Amino acid sequence: MSDGIYEDVSESERMNTDRMEMIVEFYEGEEYVRDHDFRTETNTHQPLQRTESVCVKIRSSRAAAVCLVLLCVLLLTAVIVLCVTFTLERRQFISKNENLQMSLGKLDGWIYYQSSLYFISSEKRNWAESRRYCTERGADLIIINDREEQEFVKNSFDGFWIGLTDSDVEGRWKWVDGSTLTSE
């Protein structure tokens, strides 16, 4: 029994020494395999005997390659579309920015603070004339909404009129937008 085991080992060693390298070339439509023995430098052509598993592997490899190519094309298309879209949006943004800068240049004398624009005329007017001057330009006198805005106006301008009046009822103060005065 032990002889059989040792015989298999020596047979295995003999098989290892007799190994030969083979190059297998696949040609479309060809049904032959080309073997090349590098020790003897001989070439042989033998008929290729394909089994079902080899054909299935080739088909699945082709399907995987086709899927990979399709995914690459899809990815490339998405990148191109995104680049074009980004470029168009960027141009629109730059155009809008330039238009805003030009418009801002036309607002000479105006001061922007907390989403409001303030303008102080260099001409001295009374309250009624100042209000009419503002309304003719689509604006009105200042309505102060909080302590922070009050401090900003007080520190930024020397003399100004605010939009607070008691012209309807003496002693009852209202802002020019009709809201009542609240004290904090």
Automatic annotation (TrEMBL):
Pfam families found in the cross-reference section: Lectin_C
PROSITE patterns: C_TYPE_LECTIN_2 (PS50041)
Any Gene Ontology CC annotation: plasma membrane
Membrane topology: Single-pass type II membrane protein
GO molecular function terms attached to this record: carbohydrate binding
Keyword Membrane on entry: yes
Keyword terms of this UniProt record: Lectin, Membrane, Transmembrane, Transmembrane helix
Main location as per UniProt: membrane
Residue ranges of every copy of the C-type lectin domain listed in the record: 113-184
Location(s), subcellular: Cell membrane
SMART domains, A to Z: CLECT
Membrane spanning stretches: 63-88
UniProt cross-references to Gene3D superfamilies, sorted A to Z: Mannose-Binding Protein A, subunit A
Name of the protein in its database record: C-type lectin domain family 4 member E
Species classification: Eukaryota, Metazoa, Chordata, Craniata, Vertebrata
